[in-house]
Every structure is written in C-alpha cells, then in structure tokens.
Amino acid sequence: MLIANILAGPLIELAPTFAKSLASGGTVILAGLLDTQADAVAAAYQAQGLQLIDPGHGEWPVVELKAP
User: Fold this and answer.
1) Among 10, 57, 66, which Cα is nearest to 38's?
2) Taking a C-beta distance cutoff of 8 angstroms, is the pair 19, 48 a contact?
3) What's the chain look like in SS3?
4) CATH for the 2-66 domain, from 3.40.50.1820, 3.30.750.80, 3.40.50.150, 3.30.390.50
5) Residue 19: pLDDT band by 50, 70, 90 thresholds?
6) What is the CB neighbour count within 10 angstroms for residue 55?
C-alpha cells in the first residue's frame, strides 16, 4: 500500500514511479487535492494501468486505485 498526501501536480508527475512501486493487487491512496483535480490525478494513474476503486468525494477527495 502506498499513501500520498501531496499536491495534485506532484501526484501526477509521480504516477509512473508510484505505479511501478506497487505489487500486484497493491493499493494507492491519494489525498491533498481539490475536487476539481481528482479526475486528472486519477487519469494519470489509470494511464499507468491502475484500476480506479474510489474517485473520492467532497471538497477534499481521497482517491483510491489498485494495481492489477
């Protein structure tokens, strides 16, 4: 499991590194972003092959994805 609570820009830039760091079936939980940024952050991780589990909700969403 990887948990990161940083700004959206760095979360997007780190997507390839974080995705490679996860074991098969591993989970990544991303926070520290605004609701207007959640889709872009999730998309960056989905582009790395991760599956979106929870897109997050509210003003400060917490996005959860899982490695295949």
Assistant:
1) 57
2) yes
3) CEEEECCHHHHHHCHHHHHHHCCCCCEEEEECCCCCCHHHHHHHHHCCCCEEEECCCCCCCCEEEECC
4) 3.40.50.150
5) very high
6) 15
Distance, CA of 40 to CA of 27 (rounded, Å) = 18
Token reading at 26: 């591993």
User: What six digits make up the tokens of 60?
Assistant: 């400060």
Pair of tokens at residue 34: 């605004």
State the pTM of this model: 0.94
Task: Output the six-digit token pair for 16.
Answer: 């390839």
Average predicted confidence (pLDDT) for the chain: 97
